[in-house]
Amino acid sequence: MHIHNLSQSNSVLNHFLHQIRDETIQKDRMKFRRNIERIGEVLCYEMSKTLNYKSHEFETPLSPSASEIVDEDLVICSILRAGIPLHNGILNYFDEADSAYVSAYRQQAESGADEEFDIVVEYLSSPSLEGKTLLLADPMLATGLSMLHVLKALEKLGKPKSTHILSVVGAQAGVGLIDQYLPDHAHLWIADIDDDLNEKGYIMPGLGDAGDLAFGKKL
After folding, report:
1. Is the pLDDT of residue 4 over 60?
2. What domains sit in the chain, N to C, each tagged with a CATH number?
3. Phi and psi at residue 56, to the nearest 5°
4. Considering the entire predicted model, what is its pTM?
């Protein structure tokens, strides 16, 4: 898997990243959601440089012209609920893409230990992925287990031509797990990668729970 860590070069992306991490700024839910959306747009712009294009001839009000336009059959799949603002940012740039949604959440393991959890995938709505370009959106790539379960759940929908994961913040452990699963030609586009996870599997320093910050605490 090709890993593109965009924080390694200075851009306005780092400004948005600071604002979603800063606990005094991230309390503004609308601003938090918008910054996740804007990060999605930046990730999309960089990813778009690797897509296939074709020449398209058309008429302007004054004369004929031609442009290079994206030649891909795109499907954007977000992991609910935290993936919704990121999904919207991607959709802002690829507005003709199909959309898919999947739920994946942590559930305490049968052992009852606080630090152990299972991943439950309950809901999946998606078109066929056969031969498509899959853009999989999940803002937090922590342990990588949720992403792994989602990738496995999507297998029954066909084999994508290519897979691009778009994420905001990841941990080395989660990135490493997904790297082992995905083929060499897959891509991860991510705003930043942190070193550690805490005992509950949250990214350190991370930013907290993206879903709670965007939409409020869940039961």
Report:
1. yes
2. 2-215 (3.40.50.2020)
3. -130, 120
4. 0.90
